[in-house]
Specification:
Layout: H1 4-9, H2 17-21, H3 61-122, H4 125-134
């Protein structure tokens, strides 16, 4: 940008007569679709193939110790986490077992009530009387009843 005094001195005519006689450079027309050159585009790198298939890696004695110490550290960390979470996991499992046992107890009590009801129905006097009449059974007379006394001898009297 021109300074202010230079800007003010400009007029339509050139200030120096030699400037008008100077040839004007002609620019070649540029293709508007052509990209500009990339930096370092003129450099060429040669890639050489390297075959490392015959190389043998040298043993590193410190690497083996580092691996074992990492494995040991992981085991210690696993043991600490296991011991930290064991009580909560054990109480959760115990809770599940307790609820399972309570459900089983409710089921067994319901089954026992059903069995007691069935037993009471089977041993009811009205049912026994019906069975006795169906089988032509009669009540025993007083002479047919023998009361056994609990004595030391094992002899039982037989009634003919």
């Amino acid at each position: 940008m021109a300074t202010l005094p230079t800007f003010l001195r400009r007029t339509g005519t050139p200030a120096h007569p030699e400037a008008a006689a100077r040839p004007v450079g002609v620019r070649a027309e540029r293709d508007p679709h052509m990209l500009r050159a990339l930096p370092n585009d003129d450099l060429l790198f040669y890639v050489k193939r390297i075959d490392n298939s015959r190389l043998v890696r040298a043993a590193d004695p410190q690497a083996r110790g580092a691996c074992w110490s990492a494995i040991g550290g992981a085991c210690v960390l696993l043991a600490l986490l296991t011991s930290a979470f064991f009580p909560s996991v054990a109480s959760t499992i115990a809770g599940y077992k307790l609820e399972g046992l309570r459900a089983e107890e409710r089921h067994l009590l319901a089954e026992r009530r059903n069995l007691d009801l069935q037993e009471a129905e089977l041993l009811s006097p009205a049912r026994l009387d019906r069975l006795a009449k169906a089988g032509n059974l009669v009540a025993p007379s007083s002479q047919q009843v023998i009361h056994l006394d609990a004595k030391g001898d094992a002899t039982v009297a037989m009634v003919k």
